[in-house]
Amino acid sequence: MSNRFTRKRRGLSVEVRGDEFGRALRTLSKKVQESGLLKEVQDRMSYEPPAVKKQRLKKQARKRWERSVEDMIRSGLWHKDKNY
């Protein structure tokens, strides 16, 4: 016997209980965000040349590094003579 409750579901799904549609929608959007599905769809919609992708990733890494340095300076762990 195969009904809608025992079938195996593929992909993301959220159960709406009662009239809590807004709550289910928030839960679904959190799941989509965490899974990276939306980012993957956006990436596949347009072609990005390898050189441009490399520049973008390098820029993101630089920003992450600068942010971590700022955090270390604020917390007092940064010293100019150390090799990081």
Task: Please explain how this structure is put together.
The chain has 84 residues and is mainly α. It has helices at residues 21-35, 37-45, 50-75. The radius of gyration is 22 Å and the shape is elongated.
How far apart the termini lie comes to 62 Å
In which range does the helix fraction lie? 55-70%
Overall tally of structural domains:
2
Question: What's the helix-strand series?
Answer: HHH
Radius of gyration: 22 Å
**Structural class by SSE content:** mainly alpha
Could you give a short account of the major beta sheet? none
Mean pLDDT across all residues, rounded? 86
Strands, count: 0
> Looking at the structure, what is the overall shape?
elongated
Alpha plus pi helix count: 3
Name the poorly predicted regions: none
Question: Strand portion, in percent?
Answer: under 5%
Topology record:
Blueprint: H1 21-35, H2 37-45, H3 50-75
Quick structural overview:
By secondary structure, this protein is mainly α.
What attributes characterize this protein structure?
single chain; 84 residues; mainly alpha; 0% strand; elongated
